[in-house]
């Protein structure tokens, strides 16, 4: 072989073995209107820029319940009766169709706004849709989690997988052509671990799996959100609370408009008014919402497992017992507190874990690096300005997923999921 030919062979070999690049959406070609990540996270997409979706009245849907953990009848107080059975929502097409499971984000209920949007998007495209609560929601922890200590990703995936199998068993006449899976935020991380689990159990053989704005390093993501609560906000002191400042702004806004109109466009219009929230106020509001989710996790896990850290073991909670004092105490426990007081001891006792660094690696996408690299069915959509990402997180996704990663220039944390461009891209991914 001549030298030029050998060089050409070498060049083609290098190109063939080089990793393909992720799809980075050029800001010049992306017309999502909110470039502030805090604003995008809170406001989401203006209604005029969302896709046309079916109305609730046009969706054949119902809520169902399954008893997965019979022992909770005795472990939970009587006034927890609504969450002793796992509830979920199923939207059915009239005939045979693909089915997609949607896993909600941190602390979210299956019927919260983002699962509802995704349900309408997929139902309108011809899918059966099952909406599941997050493993970190109090209802899933109570009714479906074996150990009620969420955060150990493989155990959370096992709980979700059992729940999915139970859902399918409850609807034996539902005609399904193939199975798909998606999740947003923490639900995206959960979906990755569920997908890996399915490779060995083969109960669903998911055709396509899409992670929407998932945490890469779970510890980094929750630390970033926890820090937002500590943001210094002008006008807040010992005598004026953060909520009084926000309520004052909303009151003045509605007084200026002359009427009260609470709808999807409210926050977008509000942020265009002179009462708009500052970056610091928006950051604290996002952090406060996450802190409430963390408090729910800490309280519910402590109650079910009777650890005595928040709820006293020797004082049974009855129907008339006020939960407010316990919840106030839980609010003092951020995710780091839950991690050290409840999650780490369980992980060390059950799995022989040692250090925090080991736990972080085991529950994050790092633990699935080989699977993410080799699984062509799995893709990720993320935003470059997502506040849950840390240094090196996008680099990890680029190296691991290549062209199966799409990065949008802005959109904050899940703020652009219902933008019509993103909606079209989501459906296109599942069409293959």
Automatic annotation (TrEMBL):
GO terms for molecular function: protein serine/threonine kinase activity. GO terms for cellular component: membrane. SUPFAM superfamilies: alpha/beta-Hydrolases (SSF53474). Residues 1-22 form the signal peptide. Keywords: Kinase, Serine/threonine-protein kinase, Signal, Transferase. It comes from the Bacteria. This is Serine/threonine protein kinase.
């Amino acid at each position: 072989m001549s030298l030029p030919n050998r060089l050409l062979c070498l060049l083609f070999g290098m190109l063939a073995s080089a990793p393909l690049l992720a799809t980075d959406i050029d800001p010049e070609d992306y017309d999502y209107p909110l470039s502030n990540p805090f604003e995008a996270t809170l406001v989401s997409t203006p209604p005029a820029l969302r896709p046309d979706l079916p109305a609730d009245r046009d969706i054949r849907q119902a809520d169902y319940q399954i008893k997965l953990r019979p022992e909770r009848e005795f472990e939970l107080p009587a006034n927890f009766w609504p969450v002793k059975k796992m509830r979920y929502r199923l939207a059915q097409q009239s005939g045979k169709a693909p089915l997609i499971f949607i896993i909600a984000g941190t602390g979210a209920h299956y019927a919260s706004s983002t699962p509802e949007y995704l349900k309408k998007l997929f139902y309108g495209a011809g899918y059966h849709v099952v909406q599941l609560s997050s493993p970190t929601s109090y209802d899933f922890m109570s009714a479906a989690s074996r150990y009620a200590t969420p955060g150990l990703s493989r155990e959370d995936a096992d709980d979700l997988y059992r729940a999915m199998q139970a859902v399918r068993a409850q609807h034996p006449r539902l005609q399904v052509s193939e199975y798909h899976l998606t999740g947003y935020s923490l639900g995206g991380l959960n979906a990755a671990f569920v997908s890996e689990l399915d490779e060995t159990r083969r109960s669903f053989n998911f055709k396509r799996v899409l992670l929407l704005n998932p945490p890469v390093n779970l510890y980094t993501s929750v630390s970033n959100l926890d820090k937002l609560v500590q943001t210094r906000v002008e006008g807040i002191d010992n005598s004026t609370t953060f909520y009084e400042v926000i309520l004052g702004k909303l009151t003045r806004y509605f007084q200026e408009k002359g009427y009260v109109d609470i709808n999807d466009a409210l926050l977008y219009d509000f942020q265009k008014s002179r009462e708009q929230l500052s970056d610091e106020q928006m950051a604290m509001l996002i952090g406060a919402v996450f802190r409430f989710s963390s408090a729910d996790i800490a309280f519910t896990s402590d109650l079910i497992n009777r650890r005595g850290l928040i709820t006293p073991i020797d004082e049974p909670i009855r129907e008339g017992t006020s939960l407010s004092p316990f919840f106030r105490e839980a609010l003092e426990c951020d995710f780091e507190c839950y991690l050290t007081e409840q999650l780490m001891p369980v992980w060390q006792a059950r799995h022989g874990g040692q250090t925090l660094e080991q736990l972080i690696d085991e529950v994050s996408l790092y633990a699935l690096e080989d699977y993410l690299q080799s699984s062509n069915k799995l893709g990720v959509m993320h935003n470059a300005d997502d506040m849950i990402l840390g240094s090196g997180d996008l680099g990890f996704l680029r190296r691991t997923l290549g062209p199966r990663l799409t990065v949008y220039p802005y959109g904050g944390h899940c703020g652009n999921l219902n933008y019509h461009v993103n909606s079209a891209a989501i459906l296109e991914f599942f069409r293959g």
